[in-house]
TrEMBL record:
Keywords: Cell membrane, Membrane, Transmembrane, Transmembrane helix
Name of the protein in question: Cytochrome b/b6 domain-containing protein
Species whose genome carries this gene: Marinibaculum pumilum
Record flagged with keyword Membrane: yes
InterPro entries: Cyt_b561_bac/Ni-Hgenase, Di-haem_cyt_TM, Hydrogenase_cytochrome
Cellular localization per UniProt: Cell membrane
Signal sequence range: none
Domain Cytochrome b561 bacterial/Ni-hydrogenase: residue ranges: 12-184
Main location: membrane
Length: 228
């Protein structure tokens, strides 16, 4: 057991946490509304997801350190070394995503982005037409519509793997990754590094303002492009 003293430090800023939970909720809403052909709700959910993804792209370059792509998107070598460490029982401390978790997050973001983009061009030729369908040739629109349906199955599988990995990490390593995404804080060795790490956070009000403005503006623009 590690008896070294620990400190509670910030891990995730409020904007990143709100993005995470809002995206999870909206993906469920999109799934249920799509299955029940509630197209108005499905469309609104998709527009909000598009806004959230645009925010996350911006935040990946200008947000708090743990939210930046440079902090958690690592190469295959770093991922393999981390996984080797997991097997050996030594993974170190990570303020943010570990290499394997970062890879999963990056993959999920890419698939969700592809899902949303294809949905903007999708059409069922009867009741629903995405706001960008009018700008795509018929053949391309049909291809993107098919991809929209296929990508969901991949997204669902990745989401399940992500949830199981978080649960296993909690059960096996006794490390709760869910709580920091709720509170924004986690334990860190009190070795003097915590104070330095605390300085790399964007003010909460600024992050939340950017998230709300970008998401709302994107949704309004896409809704205005909706042909009917």
């Amino acid at each position: 057991m590690d008896d070294r003293p620990t400190a509670r430090i910030r891990i995730w800023d409020p904007a990143t946490r709100l993005f995470h939970w809002a995206m999870a909720v909206l993906l469920v809403v999109s799934w249920i509304s799509g299955e029940n052909e509630a197209w108005e709700i499905h469309a609104l959910s998709g527009y909000l997801l598009a806004g959230l993804l645009l925010f996350r792209l911006l935040w990946g370059f200008a947000g708090s350190r743990t939210s930046r792509f440079a902090d958690f998107v690592r190469g295959p070598g770093a991922i393999l070394r981390y996984l080797k460490g997991v097997l050996q029982g030594s993974t170190g401390h990570w303020q943010g995503h570990n290499p394997a978790g970062g890879a999963m997050v990056a993959l999920l973001l890419l698939i969700v982005t592809a899902q949303v983009v294809t949905g903007l061009f999708a059409s069922d030729d009867i009741l629903f037409e995405g706001p960008l369908r009018q700008f795509a040739p018929e053949g391309l629109a049909k291809t993107l519509t098919s991809l929209h349906h296929l990508l969901f199955n991949l997204l669902l599988a990745l989401a399940i793997v992500h949830i199981l990995a978080v649960l296993l990490y909690w059960i096996v390593k006794r490390d709760n990754l869910i709580l920091p995404m709720l509170t924004g804080r986690a334990s860190w060795p009190a070795d003097g590094t915590a104070d330095r790490r605390e300085k790399h956070f964007v003010p909460a009000w600024l992050g939340l303002a950017v998230l709300i403005v970008v998401t709302a503006a994107t949704a309004l623009v896409l809704d205005a492009l909706q042909p009917f």
